[in-house]
Amino acid sequence: MAPPKSRPAKKTGKKTAKELRGEHEPQSIIPVDLQQLLLNVFKNSFVERLGADFKPLLQEVKGHLYNRDFLTAFGRNDYLEVYAARWSPSRALGYLDIFASLNDLNLSTPSVNQQEDRREIVCIGGGAGAEIVALGGYLAYLQRTNQMPSPQPQMNIKSIDIADWAIVGDKLHQHLTTAPPISQYASASAKASNVPLLDSDLLNVSFKHADVLNLDASTLRPLFQGVKLVTIMFTLNELYSTSLALTQKFLLNLTECLDEGAQLLVVDSPGSYSTVTLNGAEKKYPMKWLLDHTLLKQGPKGEEPPWTKVIEDESRWFRLQTELNYPIELENMRSQLHLYSRST
Fold first, then answer.
1. E strands of 210-272, at which residues?
2. Which residue among 28, 71, 111, 237 sits deepest, i.e. has the most Cβ atoms within 10 Å of its Cβ?
3. Does residue 117 contact residue 107 with C-beta atoms inside 8 Å?
4. Residues 29-67, buried b or exposed e (16+ Cβ, 10 A)?
5. How confident is the model at residue 108, as a pLDDT?
6. Can you give the pLDDT at residue 104?
């Protein structure tokens, strides 16, 4: 899980540089009230953590991240909750905007070659919960816009992360599928309308504590059996920085584990570069070049590449709307996006 690199959200009402030049970024298609409900999931999940001791703990976490001491930064439950409460909410909204805007992302289409109608999704580096809440929000969005297939399928989300984020995932899943807390003095009508964002039957969440760079193909295979979508959000460049060779090996093993038609969605900081050492000399390569080189390369006998690139966006913004409420300041999200489909 890489530390965030987005700029702070500015709610001053000033125009952005693009607006001043007469350019306009597309507005999110997600209703503001649904975005607020997702922020409430984080607020209710970490209500105690967002209290008086939040800022000192946050500074400790920031210090460990700045020093790239990830084992310490993600080594305590209170640190994990602080990280998730601080950085995952805005990312969850940004990810939801991506899911809803990608018409080529076939999450709402029927599953094939499976005995049960499920959506199997694996989130690499997704322990901090942004992907879980975003996908839960996507189900709610499909319901609101009457795009949910009938019968309604269950979405099974498996997060795989090097740190033990189980406590975070459990809390977020609980608050996605149970009614929000409400005052005992609330009116009868308010209590009657206080319902969960999602039915618990629609969303199943599990967590795997593992370092994907050190899992062999035989261990990876059951984790990705029948998987429809794999996401690697703000994690791939960190994997490349850890070990180019092991990351390439993981992507090749992942390719072997996935069925034809499965999709891989990579989202990361725009302009991400990784340093590669070749013949004793260091050189920086764009993350997207390394990714394409691994996934879109022809076989030794001229075989077609195992992946097809469906969408590429080198820089996109998700900006928080001023109407949104959260106990602490959040950040806008700028990202690059790459969507691949397993072709052979």
1. 229-233, 263-268
2. 237
3. no
4. ebeeebbbbbbbbbbbbbeebbeeebeebbebbeebbee
5. 57
6. 65
Whether omega before 151 lies within 30 degrees of 0, making that bond cis, reads: yes
Domains, the chain, in order of start with CATH, read 32-107+117-179+194-342 (3.40.50.150)
Can you say whether the dihedral through the CA atoms of 110, 113, 115, 119 is positive or negative?
A: negative
Q: How many residues in total does the chain contain?
A: 344
Q: What is the pTM of this model?
A: 0.88
Q: What is the pLDDT of residue 191?
A: 87
Nearest to 273 by CA among 287, 290, 291: 287
Residues of the chain short of pLDDT 50, as ranges, are 4-24, 110-116
DSSP one-letter string for 99-160: HHH-TT--TTSPP-S-SS-EEEEEEET-TTSHHHHHHHHHHHHHHHTT---SSPPEEEEEEE
pLDDT at 113: 44
Separation of alpha carbons 223 and 342, rounded Å:
17
Supply the pLDDT for residue 223. Answer: 95
Q: What is the DSSP string of 278-335?
A: ETTEEEEEEHHHHHHHHHSPPPTTSPPPSEEEEEEEEEEEE---TT---SS--B-EEE
pLDDT in tens, 60-101: 999 999 998 999 999 999 999 999 999 999 999 999 999 999
What is the distance between the alpha carbons of residues 144 and 270, in angstroms, rounded to a whole number? 32
